[in-house]
Amino acid sequence: MKLAKLKILAYQLLINHIKSVEDRRFHVRNMIQNLEVRCRQEPDIALILLPELSTVEYSSASFENLGDLAEPLEGETFTAMSSLAKRVGCAISYGFPQVQDGRYFISQAVVGSSGQLLTTYNKLHLAHFGVCMEQDYFSRGDRLSVFELGGFRLGTIICYDFRFSELIKQLVVKHAVDAILHPVAFAKDGTFASWHHFVITRALEYQVYFLSLNRAGHAYGNSILCPPWIDDHTSPLTLGEEEEACIFTLDKQIIQSAKETYPFRKDMMADYSVLGTRA
């Protein structure tokens, strides 16, 4: 039996100063035009993955303008992404600031190839250190997001969420995801040096694909897309600082092979809290 593959277009996107609704509309139009050209050049793309808050600049100046820049779930950007998804025939995962009942969320929506909303995720853990000031502007989410596409189960987390192993374990063990989509806005502050190490560890300990996609620019960049196992012959795909669209393929056979060769998940105890201790 031939196992499934899923081709993903990961777009490390350059996002310039966005202070107004017109800035945001101009940026989204350009982004969509670039994506459509790339999709026409590359057949069989199943999913376009975009970074965290891919419709706005990540800055306090931008966040001070959330009253204008934030959108309802099915707002202008959803309409534009829905139309693009139908034209190119693939799903799209994009980030945006969502307004809901007077509160703002860092959200990642997924639109299906028929233009329908598949799922949305609101960031659970809000970063408030280094250059991050999210707790001053956003509310935290309260639920997980898992969806199915092309024979794969995909879970979404956003940036700082990946620091919490219990969250990844919940997605992998309880919800049986094959891959973690991890859109980020990872600035080159004191947390940057450990980012790739965390991604590789999460991918290997849970034997899933881990796609950590950043925005482009000298202060960001260096996205890392990691398979469920790495060795002398297989390495994660890493990008530079420039805007770049790359193709990354998920392969069920690779997941299965990793689990069979290194049976970490099979050997994991269901509950370690029942163990006693020795003095």
User: What does the radius of gyration come to?
Assistant: 19 Å
Order of helices and strands: EHEHHHEEEEEHEHEEEEHH
Any idea how many domains?
A: 1
Classified in CATH, the superfamily is Carbon-nitrogen hydrolase
Strand order of the largest sheet: 5-4-3-2-1-12
- Global shape: globular
Report low-confidence residues grouped into runs of 5 or more.
Answer: none
Q: Specify the helix fraction band.
A: 25-40%
Averaging pLDDT over every residue, what do you get? 95
Number of helices: 8
What is the CATH level 1 assignment?
Answer: Alpha Beta
Q: Assign the structural class, choosing from mainly alpha, mainly beta, alpha/beta, alpha+beta, or little secondary structure.
A: alpha/beta
| Largest sheet composition | 6 strands, mixed
DSSP strand tally: 12
Beta-strand fraction estimate:
15-25%
Explained architecture:
By secondary structure, this protein is of the alpha/beta class. The chain has a six-stranded mixed sheet. Strands 6-7-8-9-10-11 form a six-stranded mixed sheet, covered by helices on one side. The protein has one domain: Nitrilase/N-carbamoyl-D-aminoacid amidohydrolase. It starts with a strand and ends in a 12-residue tail after the last helix. The protein has helices spanning 21-41, 60-63, 66-69, 76-88, 165-174, 192-206, 252-261, 264-267, and strands at 5-12, 47-49, 91-100, 103-111, 117-122, 146-149, 152-156, 179-183, 209-213, 224-226, 237-238, 244-251.
